């Protein structure tokens, strides 16, 4: 049987019909299998909204309460569904409000297509009402962008946009459409894009390189894997797991790689980077072979580059040639989709285990447990810690929730302690660190994986950056569980002020509103917890609910996140306190 | 370190002729604070394929990274970098001089002849001299003409072709075959 998408595509591909540009936009989206978009209307995009009204039984439009929310929701949707997220907005302020989400999607390689209305083509360059050069503004933060000024361009440009957004290393694409191009009629037919001659999404796999990689791996005594989101984006989780298990090599993740391999896997040794685990950071500077898979050596991962893994040979499995040698020189780059390269690699790798080397990770983990983790998860203080809230969430979701985090201390704590048994379960703003990401992203994540439990863990600061999306959550009734870890501080900044600015807490303390009342104002079930003895019951009640639910947990105001690599320090100078 | 040595590199970019690509490419330089010494855009030897020639003065490691970022752009077909020794390159300069000087100062005619410059236009008020060559040649002519009063002077960006082959046609026909 054919799916609805296939039928829609076939219908669209076979016929040539005379329609307006605005209707063509809808038909292009349907042909690409899109049935859900996020957006906000306004003058320059009204013809498309009029068509959305007519097609509402085939294409669901979710009205967010701010265009930034539309982009983050589209990102959340893309991250859990593996499909392209779509956001739509009007010209001028509508378009500029998209920019943060686009930049976030660009740096975190999220497939997204943004559509903006634009003033009529005869007005371009006249500083017309709500005219803004969104092509110029979005150029540095898009994978590709294009301004459509003629209705007849729509099918080809949309086809290319979706192809570019999702192929190779995914990213955001913006299409700006002048109002006259939406109004004018033309003969529409749709052909999917199968290739662009100037664009090679996936470099050819170099079999020699894979063979050399196998040799290095087989001969290494202290090999170490660091994987990133490339494993998830390349849908290479199985191949990756096979490789990890056969080679017996300890493996650590970057924040965006989290959930590609179960957190309980015996070879999963934790997170690398600024607030990562003790062992993987220290041993980065002891391994003899660093096997980087689908990651890009961000400075939050590497710390000081001059002292990063200098003793090791580096193999870099990477789909984007521009990442090779960008930050860390690779002794052996293996270009291509890691799904392919790992598949070819597997039979060449000897079955091994590295018990002594693995023991080094375990020993350092013991130190971390004593010095940090125990205090985080089993605090002896009266106030609640962020860590114990995450433990409670793990308990009631059985480690099988999608965890969406914002940016700050709560993000680091959640990523350090959340348990995952399935891939595509960690949604966070890694590269851009966009406060305000989580609430709308959680909405999108839930819509992208409706059968899954989605828990958003958000700080009291970031929550207030996109708090208006409670309205969208209420209206859609998307059953998102929202946990605000309230420390009445911009906690992460306060931590830096404490450690590096002699406790001068400049503008980081917040006098907060009654969050429960606000949630109730949006007609959401809501609760506040400030005592340990009430925590588990509250989390259990939240998880048991099949509706959106808001839980505020008042936590210690001045807790810090450790371990920590101070900016500019070496990964092996990671501090435990 | 030897590879940190600053050098003049000519970057050649073959691309689709798309509005906006210039912006995209220049933002790659802007983001990294790299100065563009000169930039020329024109059609290339292939129909519908555009060519950029950009001159930069940086070290080889950086020019390599620039090329990676440029090639990453969807509308860029291919980008290369070359040293001066690997290319044939020229610049063109135009010099606008008062006509009276041409007739009153015999010497100016010798300068033009010796420098192998061409007179493009002569009118009662002014005449225009064109000189194509290396930077030091157009500079020298500028120096020589300056005493006679230059009404205007302009020099183009570098244009260059490489001694080695550019395999764009092969690349494009391979794409055609594969798709
Ligand atoms: C849009 C934006 N502005 C500023 C920052 C800088 N910043 C990073 S973390 C942080 C504090 C976050 O506070 P909160 O949301 O309460 O989380 P906490 O650290 O307390 O858990 C700030 C201000 C940012 N990441 N994003
Ligand atoms: Mg806070």
Unreliable sequence segments of chain B: none
Strand portion of chain B, in percent?
35-45%
Element order, helices and strands of chain B?
A: EHEEHEEHHEEHEEH
Taking the alpha carbons of the first and last residues of chain A, their distance comes to: 60 Å
CATH fold-level topology of the largest domain in chain B: Alpha-Beta Plaits
Largest interface: A-B, 22 and 24 residues
Number of helices of chain A: 24
Can you offer a commentary on this structure?
The complex is a heterodimer of chains A (577) and B (179). With 577 residues, chain A is of the alpha/beta class. Chain A folds into 3 domains: 4-188, 3-Layer(aba) Sandwich (Rossmann fold), CATH 3.40.50; 207-361, TPP-binding domain (Rossmann fold, 3-Layer(aba) Sandwich); 382-554, Rossmann fold. In chain A, 39% of the residues lie in helices and 17% in strands. Chain A contains 24 helices and 20 strands. Chain A has a 6-stranded parallel sheet with strand order 3-2-4-5-7-6, with helices on both faces. A 6-stranded parallel sheet of chain A has the order 11-10-9-12-13-14, sandwiched between helices. In chain A, helix 8 (154-166) links the parallel strand 6 (144-148) and strand 7. In chain A, helix 1 packs across helix 2. Chain A is globular, with a radius of gyration of 24 Å. The model of chain A has no long low-confidence stretch (mean pLDDT 96). The longest helix of chain B is centred in the middle third of the chain and has 13 residues, at 60-72. Chain B is of the alpha+beta class and 179 residues long. The model of chain B has no long low-confidence stretch (mean pLDDT 92). Chain B folds into 2 domains: 7-87 and 159-171, Alpha-Beta Plaits; 90-155, 2-Layer Sandwich (Alpha-Beta Plaits). Chain B contains 6 helices and 9 strands, in the order E-H-E-E-H-E-E-H-H-E-E-H-E-E-H. In chain B, strands 5, 6, 7, 8 and 9 form a 5-stranded antiparallel sheet that branches. In chain B, strands 2-3-1-4 form a 4-stranded antiparallel sheet, with helices on one face. Chain B has helices at 21-31, 60-72, 99-104, 106-114, 135-145, 168-178; strands at residues 7-16, 38-43, 49-58, 76-83, 87-98, 118-122, 126-133, 150-155, 159-162. Chain B is elongated. Chain A binds chain B through residues 135-136, 139-140, 143-147, 164, 194-199, 320-322, 324-326, and chain B through 15-16, 18-20, 23-24, 27, 31, 64-65, 68-69, 71-72, 74-77, 172, 175-176, 178-179. The structure holds thiamine diphosphate and magnesium ion (MG). Magnesium ion (MG) is lined by residues 459-461, 487, 489-491 of chain A.
């Amino acid at each position: 049987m054919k799916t609805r998408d296939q039928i829609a595509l076939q219908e669209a591909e076979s016929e040539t019909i005379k329609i307006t540009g605005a209707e063509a936009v809808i038909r292009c989206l349907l042909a690409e299998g899109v049935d859900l978009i996020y957006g906000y209307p306004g003058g320059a995009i009204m013809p498309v909204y009029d068509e959305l009204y007519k097609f509402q039984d085939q294409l669901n439009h979710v009205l967010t309460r701010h265009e930034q929310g539309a982009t983050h929701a589209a990102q959340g949707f893309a991250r859990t569904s593996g499909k392209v997220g779509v956001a739509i907005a009007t010209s001028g302020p509508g378009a500029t409000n998209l920019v943060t989400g686009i930049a976030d999607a660009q740096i975190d390689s999220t497939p997204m297509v943004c559509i903006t209305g634009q003033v009529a083509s005869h007005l371009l360059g006249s500083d017309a009402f709500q005219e803004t050069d969104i092509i110029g503004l979005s150029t540095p933060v898009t994978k590709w962008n294009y301004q459509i000024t003629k209705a007849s361009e729509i099918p080809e440009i949309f086809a290319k946009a979706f192809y570019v957004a999702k192929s190779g290393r995914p990213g955001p694409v913006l299409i700006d459409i002048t109002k006259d191009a939406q109004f004018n009629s033309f003969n529409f037919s749709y052909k999917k894009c199968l290739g662009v001659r100037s664009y090679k999404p996936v470099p050819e796999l170099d079999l020699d390189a894979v063979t050399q990689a196998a040799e290095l791996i087989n001969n290494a005594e202290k090999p170490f894997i660091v994987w990133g989101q490339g494993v998830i984006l390349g849908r290479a989780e199985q191949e990756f797991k096979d490789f990890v298990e056969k080679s017996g090599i300890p493996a650590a993740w970057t924040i965006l790689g989290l959930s590609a391999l179960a957190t309980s896997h015996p070879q999963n040794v934790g997170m690398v980077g600024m607030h990562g685990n003790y062992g993987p950071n220290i041993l980065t500077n002891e391994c003899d072979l660093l096997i980087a898979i689908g990651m890009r050596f961000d400075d939050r991962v590497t710390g000081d580059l001059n002292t990063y893994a200098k003793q090791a040979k580096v193999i870099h499995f990477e789909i984007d040639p521009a990442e090779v040698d960008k930050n860390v020189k690779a002794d052996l780059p293996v270009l291509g989709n890691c799904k392919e390269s790992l598949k070819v690699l597997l039979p060449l790798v000897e079955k091994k285990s590295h018990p002594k080397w693995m023991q080094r990770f375990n020993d350092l983990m013991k130190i971390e447990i004593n010095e940090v983790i125990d205090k985080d998860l089993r605090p002896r203080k009266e106030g609640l810690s962020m860590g114990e809230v995450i433990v409670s969430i793990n308990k009631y979701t059985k480690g099988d929730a999608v965890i969406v985090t914002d940016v700050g201390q709560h993000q680091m704590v959640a990523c350090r302690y959340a348990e995952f048994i399935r891939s595509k379960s960690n949604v966070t703003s890694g590269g851009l660190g966009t406060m305000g990401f989580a609430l709308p992203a959680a909405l999108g994540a839930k819509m992208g994986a409706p059968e899954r439990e989605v828990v958003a863990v958000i700080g009291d600061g970031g929550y207030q950056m996109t708090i208006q999306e409670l309205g969208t959550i209420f209206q859609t009734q998307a059953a998102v569980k929202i946990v605000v870890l309230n420390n009445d501080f911009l906690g992460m900044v306060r931590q830096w002020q404490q450690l590096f600015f002699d406790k001068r807490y400049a503008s980081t303390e917040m006098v907060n509103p009654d969050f429960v009342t606000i949630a109730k104002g949006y007609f959401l079930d809501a609760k506040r917890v400030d005592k340990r003895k009430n925590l588990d019951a509250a989390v259990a009640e939240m998880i048991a609910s099949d509706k959106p639910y808001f839980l505020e947990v008042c936590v210690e105001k001045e807790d810090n996140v450790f371990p920590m690599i101070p900016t500019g320090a070496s990964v092996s100078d990671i501090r435990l306190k | 370190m030897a590879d940190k040595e600053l050098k003049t590199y000519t970057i050649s970019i073959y691309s689709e002729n798309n509005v906006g690509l210039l912006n995209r490419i220049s933002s790659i330089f802007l983001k990294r604070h790299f100065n563009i010494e000169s930039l020329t855009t024109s059609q290339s030897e292939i129909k519908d394929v555009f060519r950029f020639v950009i001159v930069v003065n940086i070290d080889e490691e950086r020019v390599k990274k620039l090329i990676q970022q440029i090639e990453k752009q969807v509308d860029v077909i291919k980008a290369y970098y070359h040293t001066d020794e690997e290319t044939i390159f020229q610049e063109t300069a135009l010099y606008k001089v008062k006509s009276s000087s041409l007739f009153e100062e015999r010497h100016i005619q010798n300068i033009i002849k010796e420098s192998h410059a061409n007179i493009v236009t002569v009118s009662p008020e002014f005449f225009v001299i064109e000189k194509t060559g290396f930077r030091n040649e157009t500079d020298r002519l500028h120096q020589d003409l300056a005493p006679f009063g230059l009404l205007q002077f302009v020099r183009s960006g570098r244009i260059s072709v490489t001694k080695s082959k550019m395999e764009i046609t092969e690349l494009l026909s391979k794409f055609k075959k594969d798709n």
